[in-house]
Design a protein that fits this description.
Rossmann fold, 2 domains, binds magnesium ion, six-stranded parallel beta sheet, binds adenosine-5'-diphosphate, 16% strand, elongated, alpha/beta, 33% helix
Length: 406
């Protein structure tokens, strides 16, 4: 049976078409984190789009129009979410002037006039109400300013919005950008042709958001390593009293099913043997390391303990493919971040194929300074989770396919 990932890899990419003299619309994901002064704190997503943009410039596209969302405005103009805040950085990285288009509908003629090598950046597409509703009118308008549509917004490829999905109904030539291809190839390597043993290291806040993924990958992996609040639900399922720890009561049954299913499939499960617990997250007075079954009354588990770090690191070290999603604790707070950072170090030190999915996990890896020691760090949180769940991402679904021409 052909897998969904193989199906997605069968789409045409930029290198399969000729952009010379054409107006190219590129859906990028410039949804970068910014601080309270609008300083870009991490420009990885902009840098990740450069190969696609530069390719179009180098191959003499007549105009290149970039479209992206930024933050979560409510379908109308909001200064805070204006893409004008990123234009300087984009120009610096591209080493090229970029023209900002506040309203592409009224500036349509300007974009439509072919003039070699102009690069436009449209204002935040989510200022238009129709974007999230996948409004056909907005899709048609976007289609009317281009000859070729390129989807390179992996981070939003799990959404059915006008600029990521609907627009494809109205453009003749639609292909994937290089980032989209790199992402899908990276996950294919981990899920389709992996070198065993494969370990999935999973953590983060909730089982409920990752349960489909767990059930799907149990058929493919050899080891399941669980930390973070995710493991609290599993420990509670084993009969431990997790006290005030974050866990999901209604998913205890599900955790038992996963344990059962893992046994059937011969997947070894690793759970924390010790935990860092605290009496309060915001104003801790008492922080202790205790065995996993001994969480004190009134305390909550906020990180994995040192014995668990050792146990997990050993299991990680003996793997040849490692997929990591979800921090091992509340890594945003220094005192509860050790477990996550040590696991990041352990994975980075491996001679394995190592791939990271999940927005917070990628952020944690960045903070350790180990990003270069991972084989691949996905730029898409939600999208990478859906890939692991085995879904076809809408952003790939309607792109031109290579086999159609065979
Ligand atoms: P990702 O974005 O990588 O998919 P998630 O969003 O699922 O990861 O989870 C990240 C969040 O989980 C972080 O905000 C972190 O603070 C939280 N978290 C991890 N462990 C715990 C814990 N033991 N208790 C409470 N929150 C936790
Ligand atoms: Mg997250």
């Amino acid at each position: 049976m052909i897998s969904n990932i193989t199906t997605m890899m069968g789409v045409k990419s930029l290198k399969d078409i000729d952009v010379t003299g054409k107006r190219v619309l590129i859906r990028v994901d410039f949804n970068v984190p910014v601080d309270s002064h609008n300083n870009i704190s991490d420009d990885r997503r902009i840098r990740a789009a450069l190969p696609t943009i530069n390719y179009c410039i180098d191959h003499n596209a007549c105009s290149i129009t970039l479209v992206s969302h930024f933050g979560r405005p409510k379908g109308k103009y909001d200064e805070k979410y204006s893409l004008k805040h990123i234009i300087k950085r984009l120009e610096r990285l591209l080493q090229k002037r970029v023209e900002f288009i506040e309203d592409f509908v009224s500036s349509r003629d300007e974009i439509a006039t072919c003039s070699l090598e102009r690069v436009f950046l449209l204002e935040n597409i989510r200022f238009k109400e129709g974007e999230k509703q996948n409004d056909p009118e907005l899709s048609k308008r976007l289609a009317s300013i281009c000859d070729i549509y390129v989807n390179d917004a992996f981070g939003t490829s799990h959404r059915k919005h006008a600029s990521t999905y609907g627009v494809m109904d109205y453009v003749d030539t639609k292909v994937a950008g290089f980032l989209m291809m790199r992402e899908i190839e990276a996950f294919s390597k981990a899920l389709e042709n992996p070198v065993h043993p494969i370990a999935l290291v999973i953590g983060g806040a909730k089982i409920s958001s990752k349960i489909t993924l767990l059930k799907e990958v149990l058929q493919k992996i050899d080891k399941l390593i669980i930390g973070g609040a995710m493991s609290n639900t599993f420990l509670e399922a084993l009969g431990y009293d997790m006290q005030r720890s974050l866990y999901e009561k209604e998913y205890i049954e599900t955790a038992c099913d996963v344990i059962e299913q893992a046994k059937k499939n011969g997947v070894k499960i690793y759970l924390p043997v010790d935990l860092v617990i605290t009496d309060s997250i915001e104003t801790p007075v008492d922080i202790k390391v205790v065995p996993a079954q001994d969480v004190l009354e009134g305390f909550q588990a906020v990180d994995i303990g040192p014995a668990t770090v050792k146990l997990f690191s050993e299991a990680i070290g003996l793997s040849n493919t490692i997929i990591w999603n979800g921090p091992m604790g509340i890594y945003e707070i220094d005192r509860f971040s050790k477990g996550t950072y040590k696991i990041a170090n352990a994975i980075a030190d491996c001679y394995a194929y190592t791939i990271v999915g999940g927005g917070d996990t990628a952020d944690a890896v960045d903070k350790t300074g180990e990003a270069d020691n991972f084989s691949f760090i996905s730029t898409g949180g939600g999208a990478s989770l859906e890939l692991l769940e085995g879904k076809i991402l809408p952003g790939f679904a309607n792109l031109d396919r290579i086999e159609e021409e065979l």
